[in-house]
Amino acid sequence: MTMKRSGAAWMPADDYGRGLPKFSVNLLVRDVKASLSFYRDVLGATVHYADDDFAAMNLAGAEFMLHGDHAYDHHPLHQYIAGTAEGRRGMGAELRVMGVDPDAVEARAKSAGVTIVQSAADYPYGWRDVMAADRDGYVWAVGVAQ
Fold first, then answer.
1. Which residue of 11, 36, 40, 51 is 20 to 30 Å from 71, comparing CA positions?
2. ∠ CA 68-10-24, rounded to 5°
3. What distances in angstroms separate CA 118 from CA 7, 99, 109, 115, one per listed residue?
């Protein structure tokens, strides 16, 4: 694993790992720091910690993390992302989080030049949501129950 950070991590990896909920998401991204503006400023995620290799965040109670591609360069998963730096990742997956104002996210996404996959609207499945894509093509559907 190639690390760009200098100094110690924010907490021991095993402490963080053991503290995660039963389900969490880890996204591999080209550039962790460049991705943070989407998650923090558009989606409104709380950033627990971030460096060049890793970020730990929470969005409406959902814990998730980002790892830079380089941090997985010795991991078997790396072969699946090799060559996709300009392509989309996570094709066909929607990361859905309830409890986030979709209209506010859409407004922030437009201001930031973020790709809006589907505009905020009321849908027959009982949500008002918006779908926005991060710089690596991960699609987030966030909204509220109607």
1. 40
2. 55
3. 41, 18, 12, 9
pTM of this structure: 0.85
In sequence order, which residues have a C-beta less than 8 Å from that of residue 21 and are 6 or more positions away?
A: 63
Question: Rounded distance, CA 54 to CA 67, Å?
Answer: 5
Q: 41: how many CB neighbours lie within 10 A of its CB?
A: 14
β-pairing, 127-133 vs 115-122, is: antiparallel
Our CA dihedral for 30, 95, 88, 27, rounded to 10 degrees, sits at 30
**Burial of residue 57, with CB atoms counted within 10 A of its CB: 0-12 exposed, 13-18 middle, 19 or more buried:** buried
34-80: pLDDT as tens digits: 999 999 999 999 999 999 999 999 999 999 999 999 998 888 887 77
Structural tokens at position 2 = 């190639």
User: Among all chains, which residue has been given the structure tokens 């859905």?
Assistant: 96
